[in-house]
Amino acid sequence: MNDIPKRGHRTSTVDRQILTLAVPALGALVAEPLFVLVDSAVVGRLGTDELAGLSLASTVLLTIVGLCVFLAYATTAAVARRTGSGDRAGALQLGVDGLWLAAGLGVLLAAATWAMAPWAVELLGARGEVATQAITYLRWSAPGLPGMLLVLAATGALRGMLDTRTPLVVAASGAVANAALNVTLVYGVGMGIAGSGFGTALTQLAMGATLVIVVVRGARAAGASLSPALGGILGNARAGLPLFIRTLSLRVAILLTVWVATGLGTVTLAGHQVVNAVWGLVAFALDALAIAAQALVGHALGAGDVAQARSLLRRTLQWGVGAGAVLGLLVGLGSGVLALAFSESGDVRHAVTVGLLVAAVTMPLAGWVFVLDGVLIGAGDGTFLAWAGLVTLAAYVPFALAVRAWAPPGAAGLAWLWAAFAGVFMMARAVTTGLRARGDRWAVSGA
């Protein structure tokens, strides 16, 4: 009988730890999909070609940024472990090295994106006016890439220090500024889709600069060096390589999904843009729990407390599945209303409604997947995640190709496509990570 209050107290303490990190992280994470949603709503009023072009361009842009998410994830895990072991200066030094890596990669990728925009759009199968709109958006948004990558690296360092509030404030301010800039530049100045891309670029550069200042101040206070250290930068790159491979497999799956949607016609592609934007918003909301798990598990293993790491695994999984069920219900019930907000076309609205209903059913599964990803990243189990990513991609490809070959255009095709992506692909991820979490090889303690 005396154990019951103690167990209840431990659960309550873990819940508070999770929520203390997850709630601010939620606000910061949803900023990026909110950027896409705002862009979709603003550009969608320009016409179907513009919305379809935005779908392709934002997919390319988010793929580039997504492949660099190791700047956040690897940094969070490493900084959390170092902080858990009591080495604050060393933790912040890792954060500074990550900033230098992000800045260099950002400049190179911005130049490459501008130069290769036509090739990237053509590779996704776009032609005519849709391709023109996609290239325009990509080139105007490319200058924001250094800012986007600096946001990733700085946010990763702050999360590792268990600070999710500062990224929240910066992200919320950025979301408001982005909305105002987009409306002003697209309609007030008359730039069209170019204004949407340029507004987002300006916002991301400002956000990156703000977060860099915060990390640099903390590093100075702790006595960490601000100079670029080749060894530290290369160490960050090596630590991030498995997560890069893991993310590459995810982005290939997403690009494959867009390629299939493109082949099923403009209505399907435009509808996919809206469904994917809503899915991204929900995914990042669920990922807030994964961020909490990532930081807390890293701290626990850094301090040598494997039992606490396992307790966090169990509890965050319960939160993930429950949150997925609630969000799925909300998306399903609101699918018709959401469709009205993003297009004037009746065909596109119907496709969006059907696609959202399919996606809503799979959201509890998504909650399970995202939390497990966060736990394993926090544990530094990147090599396994890299191999698992390749396996799950191989499982998804035949289903995606079958949809491209046999699904009808319009709403039915979008429903089959999302059944393949949110159903088959996510189930493959759930099985691989779930089996890993049942064992002991991921729970390695020490900084």
How would you explain this protein's 3D organization?
The chain is mainly alpha-helical and 447 residues long. 87% of the residues lie in helices and 0% in strands. The protein has helices at residues 3-29, 31-44, 48-67, 70-84, 88-123, 128-141, 145-160, 165-188, 193-222, 230-263, 266-302, 306-333, 335-342, 346-361, 363-378, 382-406, 411-438. The chain starts with a helix and ends in a 9-residue tail after the last helix. This is MATE family efflux transporter. Keywords: Cell membrane, Membrane, Transmembrane, Transmembrane helix, Transport. Belongs to the multi antimicrobial extrusion (MATE) (TC 2.A.66.1) family.
- What is the average of the pLDDT values? 82
What's the number of structural domains? Answer: 1
The shape, in one word, is globular
Structural classification: mainly alpha
Q: What amount of the residues lies in strands? A: under 5%
In the predicted model, the low-confidence regions spanning at least 5 consecutive residues are 1-6
> Level of helix content?
over 70%
Over all CA atoms, what is the radius of gyration? 21 Å
- What oligomeric assembly is this protein in? single chain
End-to-end distance: 37 Å
User: What is the count of DSSP helices, taking H or I runs of 4+ residues?
Assistant: 17
Main sheet properties: none
Order of helices and strands: HHHHHHHHHHHHHHHHH
- List how many beta strands DSSP finds: 0
